[in-house]
Structures are given as C-alpha cells and as structure tokens.
Amino acid sequence: MFRFRLSRLLSLKISQEEQLKIQLKALRAEMGRIEDSMKKCEEQLKGLELKTLTLSSRGISGLELSQLLTYRESIHAELSILIAKLTQLRRQEDILRNQYLEARKERKILQNLRERRFRMYVFEQDRAHRLYLDELAVRKFAVSKQD
C-alpha cells in the first residue's frame, strides 16, 4: 500500500495556498472599493468645477466662492487619503502575491515528489509481481520436468 510520508506537509501547503488566495481576493475587493471611491471623488470634483463655472458666469459672492473652495479642498484631502490607502494595499498585495507564489511553488514540488514516489512504488510492485510469477513458472517447469 502506497503511503507518502510528507502528506501532512503537502496538505499544510495546500491549505496555506488557499488561505493566501482568499486573503488576496479580499484585498483586491478592498482595492476595488477604494478605486470606486476615488472615481466618485473625481466625479464630484468635475461636478464642482462645472458648478463653479456656472455660478461664476452668473456672478458669485465671496462667501459662496469660499464654500466651494473649502468643499473642493475637502474632496482633494479625501482623494489623497484614498490614494495613500490604495498605495498601502498595493504593497500588501505584492507581499501576499509573493507569499502565494512561494506556497504554490512548494506545493507543486511536493506534489511532483509524491507522483514520482508513487510511480516508483508502482514500478516496484510490478517488478515484485513479475518476480513472483517468474518464480511460479520456474517451479511449475521444474515439477513438470521431474515427471
């Protein structure tokens, strides 16, 4: 019966790979949410720009202009925060991706080793079976010669 001695290590590597894959998926989803928020901020800035142009063509008070500029600055500040978060998440993604690739490489090495060992096991079993059959044939031949 074939038994791979490193099967526990292989299953550990498989579970590590799956965990890293799940973490990467969650991280990429978070990055997608941040990118969506960034697009919304950019759309708000464009809308604010159009509103400012419209109001300035009709005439705008200093207070209204001050409020629009403050609103614009707050959107820029939020956008800067989102960019910093996205940069940090991209660094984390690189680290996780490298860990995932390393875990996948180790899993593949162990799987290849298991397959090689299994092929050797099958070869040895087949060889032992053929030797047994050869021995039976020799005995049968020897018995038939004595008669």
Secondary-structure blueprint:
Layout: H1 7-58, H2 62-146
Helix pairs in contact: 1-2
**Largest sheet report:** none
> Overall pLDDT, averaged?
94
Cα radius of gyration in angstroms: 35 Å
Bin the helical content: over 70%
- The secondary-structure class comes to mainly alpha
In the CATH hierarchy, what is the architecture of the domain at 12-107 at level 2?
Orthogonal Bundle
Walk me through the structure.
- This protein is mostly helical and 147 residues long.
- The protein has a domain at 12-107: Helix Hairpins (Orthogonal Bundle).
- It is 93% helix and 0% strand.
- It contains 2 helices and no strands.
- The chain has helices at 7-58, 62-146.
- Helix 1 (7-58) runs antiparallel to helix 2 (62-146).
- The radius of gyration is 35 Å and the shape is rod-shaped.
- The model has no long low-confidence stretch (mean pLDDT 94).
Features:
single chain; 147 residues; Helix Hairpins; 2 helices; 0% strand
Q: Can I get a quick summary?
A:
The protein has a domain at 12-107: Helix Hairpins, CATH 1.10.287.
